[in-house]
Structure formats: structure tokens, C-alpha cells
Amino acid sequence: MKNKAMVLAEAVFDVLYLTAVILSGVLLCALSTGGEARGYGIMALILGVGDAFHLTPRILSARGVPSSAAGGTPSADAWIGYGKLITSITMTVFYVFLWNIGVSHYAPPGFGRFTPLIYAAAGLRVALCLFPQNKWVSSQPERHWNIWRNIPFFALGAAVAAMYAAGAATRADGLSLVWAAIAVSFACYIPVVLFGAKCPRLGMLMLPKSCAYIAIILMGFSLLD
User: Fold this and answer.
1) Would you give the end-to-end CA distance of the chain in angstroms?
2) Directed axis angle between helix 35-62 and helix 4-31, to 10°?
3) Which residues, 6 or more positions from 88, have their beta carbon under 8 angstroms from its beta carbon?
4) pLDDT tens, 164-187?
5) Over 50: is that where the pLDDT of 70 sits?
6) Domain segments of the chain: what residues?
7) pLDDT tens across 96-130, in order?
């Protein structure tokens, strides 16, 4: 069981994370004249709004909203489960945006032809997330489906990171470390997927994972130059 101080600290972090990502998305959209910067802003809003669906119930739970509810009303735990489903889909869309922006920005030789595979991996990820066997709202989600639905997601993230690394090798600019932030995010996420059910403390790795996503979004401001 988490103590109240830890729960409160996580809630404060979640509020700051959502504020940073959504505000950055709004600013990028407002300050850009279109093109890659506008696409980056939309991408940030997709990330922030999607994450809000599962972080908001967590924040409310930290303020004392009961995790169970009577009378057929969905509990906070159920809303967190539904939110995780939505976040899984919006995060996939986020990486598709990131891929398209990178291909446009760097035009790394040969990577553009992989775009259909990127869309195929994203489509497979979304389809796997929609299967009821995932048991999103269960207190004991299906571990094997958690792994299966993340396989195409890992492939998607690896492809995007490789593309940005290839682009950064030929052109140093404000997006040169996007690949490193993606690598950090997956280095934190993979242990949670594989071993989080047996070791809940690994869930703390989601904090540096979120910081990596904030870094990715902040790099987008370089497109305003």
C-alpha cells in the first residue's frame, strides 16, 4: 500500500505533467504559422488530453474520492481502467504524428518507405487494445494481453527512435535528442509491462517516463525558430 505522502506527491506530479504538456501544445498551436510546429502542437495536445483520461481519476482518488462506488456508478478504479484504454490509443497516435513530423523534418534516406509499416503497427496496436480480453477495468488485468498489445507499440517506438537518431546524425538541431528521450521512456516502460504486476514499486518508473515525454514536447519549441 502506498502511504498518503507518496499518493499526494504522485498526484501533484500528474497535475504538473498534464499542465506542462497541454499548455505546451496550446502554445505551439497558437505561436506556429502551420507546418511542423502546428503538427507538433496537435501531437502534444493528443498526448496530454489522452493521458488526462487515466491521470484525472488518479488525482481525484488522491483527494479522497472512493475507489469503489455503489448503485452502478463506475468506480475510480474503473475510470482509471477506461482511461488506460484511451491513453493506449492516443499514445499510439502520438507516435504516428512523431514519425510523420520526423520524416518531414529530417527526410532521412529510405525511412519514408517504412511509413505504411508504421501505420500497420499502429493499427495492430489499437486493434489489440480493443479486445475485451485486456480486462481494462478489472483489478487483475490480463498480463499476457498487456505484453501482446505492447509488442507492436515497442516496434513503433523503436522505429521512430531509429529515424530520429538517423536524422540527428546528419543534422544537429532542436530535435536531435528526441530519439534519446524515446529510449529513456521505453527503458522505464518495459520493466513495468513485464514485471509491474509482481513488483508494483516498478510503477514509480512511470515518473521518469513522463519526464521523457515532457522533454520530447519541449523540443518542439525549436520548430518555432
Assistant:
1) 47
2) 160
3) 125, 126, 129, 149, 153
4) 999 999 999 999 999 999 999 999
5) no
6) 4-224
7) 999 999 999 998 888 889 999 999 999 999 999 99
Q: How far apart are the C-alpha atoms of 157 and 177, rounded to whole Å?
A: 14
CA distance 30 to 42: 10
**Average confidence score pLDDT of the chain:** 90
How far apart CA 101 and CA 153 sit, in angstroms, is 18
- Whether the pLDDT of residue 82 is over 70: the answer is yes
Q: Is the pLDDT of residue 159 over 90?
A: yes
Look at residue 56 and tell me whether its pLDDT is greater than 70. Answer: yes
In CATH, what is the architecture of 4-224? Up-down Bundle (1.20)
